[in-house]
Known about the structure:
Layout: H1 7-23, H2 25-35, H3 40-48, H4 67-79, H5 85-101, H6 104-116, E1 121-124, E2 140-144, E3 147-158, E4 165-172, E5 183-188, E6 194-198, E7 209-219, E8 224-225, H7 231-267, H8 279-307, H9 311-339, H10 351-363, H11 368-379
Parallel strand pairs: 1-4, 2-4
Antiparallel strand pairs: 2-3, 3-7, 4-5, 5-8, 6-7
The chain binds flavin-adenine dinucleotide (FAD).
Amino acid sequence: MSFIETDEQKQLRAAVAGLAARYGYVDYVLPRARRGEPLTELWDEAGKAGFLGVNLPEEYGGGGAGIYELSLVQEELAAKGAGLLLVVVSPAICGTIIGKYGTDAQKDAWLPGLADGSRKMAFGITEPDAGSNSHRITTTARRDDGGWVLGGSKVFISGVDQADAVLIVARTEDHRTGRLKPALFIVPTGAEGFTARPMAMDIVEPDNQFTLFLDDVRLPADALVGAEDAALMQLFAGLNPERILGAAMAVGMGRYALDAATAYARERAVWDAPIGAHQGIAHPLAQVKIELELAKLMMQKAAVLYDSGDDGGAAEAANMAKYAAAEASIKALDQAIQTHGGGGLAAEHGLAAMLGAARIARVAPVSREMILNFVSQHSLGLPRSY
Ligand SMILES: Cc1cc2nc3c(=O)[nH]c(=O)nc-3n(C[C@H](O)[C@H](O)[C@H](O)COP(=O)(O)OP(=O)(O)OC[C@H]3O[C@@H](n4cnc5c(N)ncnc54)[C@H](O)[C@@H]3O)c2cc1C
């Protein structure tokens, strides 16, 4: 593992930052987010430039690089206030799982579109009654006529209105209860019996969340990705990238907040010197800088471990990175608001709106408490409490 990025990685950072800066937070993202409208133009342009599929195999139109590069893309987008939530889902989770476990036909059908952004796939694991306890999911697939029939429901599923399909985590009828043996199905959003109802959320965010109802959705045999009872390995092939990409989005948002705060603190003077000269303003920003850098370092470690095939090491690092990045970005936004005084709560800067969005990372894709449970149990060897 090197701490020095290659020229190619540096160029990728610069190119993504340049694209995101042309769109920007206040003029482009914020008005869209307030209307709950996706960032379609930015997504399409990023897709055409090859940024969204950097992690996917070259033979399917991707960049042939890794989760490190995809997290770098997400971080740079978010650092301009233009992070794309569906990058966490479409190329990172779904693209990775299909790339690793899909059949040749599934790869042909999906990877080129996921790589250039022309197709999107949402991801559905969360259920109303199971919540953080995925072992309690009840969405069930039964075999029928050589295919599958899927029944159940999901909540908080992001971006279903933009997606061509949702990768649904279910159980087969043979494993209806007990420890989860996940079976993953590609479910087209236009399938009969598939209903998506928008959820009323109190966050200012361009991508919307949906409740899904799967009412005897008939699927062909080849809707199943990978093995029928592939245990958790197959699922975690996608969930570790999800956590790393969530961390990247949070680190980027934190950088945006810190940039806004320091720019303001250098200019604004209400006594004789700029407010940034007061340690009451400077020190909390310096702390935020340190915490963001530490979170980023853990995110990079997680990505390097994942890309080198160390799934166990990546799981611990990805959890820690997501935890640290969420906390650092929330603190960064809160301190940026404080630095701006009353202006921090004014609509023109959108910082309070971004704080709400940064807050998502403390809950999703896995909550702060579940990460602390993971670290207590797996890293510290403490007894499981639940
Ligand atoms: C904006 C947004 C987008 C999302 N997008 C998606 C998506 O695209 N796809 C998808 O599948 N899901 C998505 N989710 C769902 C998200 O992953 C869940 O909200 C999250 O995993 C927490 O589950 P829950 O909401 O059911 O909370 P619960 O599991 O009900 O937990 C409630 C609280 O109790 C705590 N808690 C639970 N169990 C324990 C325990 N054993 N010990 C200590 N504390 C505990 C939790 O940490 C949390 O604070 C999204 C959520 C949000 C908010």
